[in-house]
Amino acid sequence: MKYAKQIFIIFLVTMLGELLNFLLPLPVPAGVYGLFILLAALCSGLVKLPDVEDFGGFLLEAMPMMFIPAAVGLLEQFSEIRAIFMPLVLIVVVSTVVVMAATGKAAELVIRAKRERETK
């Protein structure tokens, strides 16, 4: 019964995200709306972490399998991708470095703000 409750909560949040995606004219995927709804529910205490933790862990463990169809699709289209392969690799490398740097700086700012708050 515990898993049924967890599945229900996660699917409910997913459906709310789909509803927001349908109602709001913003270019935001439904999954992102769902993630923000779940984050708000967890932060507010409306949903407790143990209420979604086990099934969420299962979904995280199953996530790599979700990339297999996309990878097969890329392999099937490799002859077309070959023409733009080097620019594509450059874009991936540069964007990865930029995201890592931005994430590091954001983490530093959060840690610094937390330390300053604790010293006051």
UniProtKB/TrEMBL annotation:
It is a multi-pass membrane protein. Keywords: Cell membrane, Hydrolase, Membrane, Transmembrane, Transmembrane helix. Its main location: membrane. GO terms for cellular component: plasma membrane. InterPro entries: LrgA/CidA. One of its GO terms (molecular function) is hydrolase activity. Pfam families: LrgA (PF03788). The chain crosses the membrane at residues 7-24, 30-47, 59-78, 84-107. It is found in: Cell membrane. This is Murein hydrolase regulator LrgA. It comes from Cloacibacillus porcorum.
